[in-house]
């Protein structure tokens, strides 16, 4: 009895000490919290501006500062979920029902994509939108759309390769990109809601295969792995959006960081936490990571320090680090939190944060979509705003605890 009491006391004390040290480790900056409050007010203004420029049936894609044109897409573009997702998250902060109505209108346009089996991006498209809606205001209709989306995404899984196919190809090849790690969250959600473990198993198998083949010894990652669809053998490791096959394309590194952090959250398997920490180490200790922590578009871009920065990679990185810091030991956690804090400060300021009434209504300027493809270069991007908003919400949550 005496011993049991002692054990209980020790447990309670250690929880209290851990809680206190977590509070210490992640001390929020009051002036940054005020900046974030202002950013949400600005976001409300900006997203109403964007809403006014959108043609019926169209989704925002980017804004060309030279022509002043808001470039748009249909619902089948991989980025279609970010606009409604961002509207919903801004609404969560500002309670501006204009944004909620606009988000609902866009969800209506997006719902057809639940049956789209031609893309691996259904996680981005449907989970960032309907998944966010489901968290804010659970709805049976949204739930069914998400389940159907997970089913569609699962059809792209090849058990021989152990991956979900990213890009379709007419050649006998099976292309998987590191970005695909981001689509797994939808599958975990589907298993939790339906009780069908097949989604979970696909996600875990995909993450394990990716861990084996996508990473170099220094934990930087290739963008594209080309597998033989019959045998699962690796045919080629290369880039598509990076500077070179052997370079470290910045956003790809941050997709991997975010992806393995979410793998740990969903499975509690330590190997994913270690993978995320190794990726974080590659990024954070890279001699080419600038002081303000907003990465160049590729860690090996030839013209550093004159290379373009990619605000979208910075936003994804900030959000991922604000989750990873909670799972790591105190020293690493503090490092991740501090870098995320610096990133949010940098992105909240010039030249990244756009002045109200400019930038086509986007919050952030200066992202890089695809330099080799010649598209969306040094322009705003929907996903830069989405992950910036998510990072700011995650930062605020440390002050609320
Ligand atoms: N392919 C998705 C991206 O540009 O990050």
TrEMBL record:
Record's keyword terms, sorted: Hydrolase, Signal
Pfam families named in the record: Glyco_hydro_88
Signal peptide stretch: 1-22
InterPro entries noted in UniProt: 6-hairpin_glycosidase_sf (IPR008928), 6hp_glycosidase-like_sf (IPR012341), Glyco_hydro_88 (IPR010905), UG_Glycosaminoglycan_Hydrolase (IPR052369)
Any one GO molecular-function label of the UniProt entry: hydrolase activity
Entry keyword Transmembrane: no
Recorded family membership: Belongs to the glycosyl hydrolase 88 family.
PANTHER family: HYDROLASE, PUTATIVE (AFU_ORTHOLOGUE AFUA_7G05090)-RELATED
Protein name in the entry: Glycoside hydrolase family 88 protein
């Amino acid at each position: 009895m005496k011993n049991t009491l002692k054990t209980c006391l020790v447990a309670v004390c250690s929880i209290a000490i851990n809680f206190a040290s977590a509070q210490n480790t992640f001390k929020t900056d009051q002036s940054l919290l005020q900046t974030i409050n202002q950013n949400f007010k600005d976001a409300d203004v900006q997203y109403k501006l964007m809403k006014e420029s959108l043609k019926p049936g169209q989704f925002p894609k980017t804004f060309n500062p030279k022509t002043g044109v808001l470039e748009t897409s249909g619902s089948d573009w991989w980025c279609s979920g970010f606009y409604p997702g961002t509207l919903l998250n801004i609404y969560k902060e500002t309670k501006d029902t204009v944004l909620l109505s606009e988000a609902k209108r866009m969800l209506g346009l997006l719902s057809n994509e639940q049956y789209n089996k031609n893309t691996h991006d259904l996680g981005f498209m449907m989970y960032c939108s309907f998944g966010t809606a489901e968290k804010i205001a659970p709805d049976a209709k949204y739930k069914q759309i998400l389940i159907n989306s997970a089913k569609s995404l699962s059809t792209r899984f090849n058990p021989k390769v152990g991956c979900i196919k990213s890009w379709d190809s007419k050649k006998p090849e099976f292309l998987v990109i590191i970005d695909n790690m981001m689509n797994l969250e939808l599958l975990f959600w589907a298993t939790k809601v339906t009780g069908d473990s097949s989604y979970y198993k696909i996600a875990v198998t995909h993450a394990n295969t990716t861990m084996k083949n996508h990473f170099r010894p220094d934990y930087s990652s290739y963008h594209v792995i080309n597998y033989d669809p019959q045998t699962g053998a690796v045919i080629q490791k290369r880039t598509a959006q990076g500077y070179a096959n052997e370079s470290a394309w910045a956003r790809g590194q941050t997709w991997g960081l975010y992806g393995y952090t979410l793998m740990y959250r969903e499975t509690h398997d330590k190997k994913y936490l270690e993978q995320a920490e190794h990726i974080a180490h590659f990024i954070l200790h890279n001699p080419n990571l600038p002081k303000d922590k907003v990465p160049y578009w590729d860690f090996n871009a030839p013209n550093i320090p004159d290379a373009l920065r990619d605000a979208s990679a910075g936003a994804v990185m900030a959000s991922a680090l604000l989750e990873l810091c909670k799972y790591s030991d105190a020293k690493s956690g503090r490092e991740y939190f501090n870098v995320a804090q610096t990133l949010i400060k940098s992105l909240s300021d010039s030249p990244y944060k756009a002045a109200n009434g400019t930038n086509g209504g986007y919050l952030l300027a200066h992202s890089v979509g695809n330099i080799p493809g010649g598209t969306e270069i040094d322009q705003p991007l929907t996903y830069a705003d989405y992950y910036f908003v998510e990072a700011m919400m995650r930062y605020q949550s440390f002050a609320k605890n």
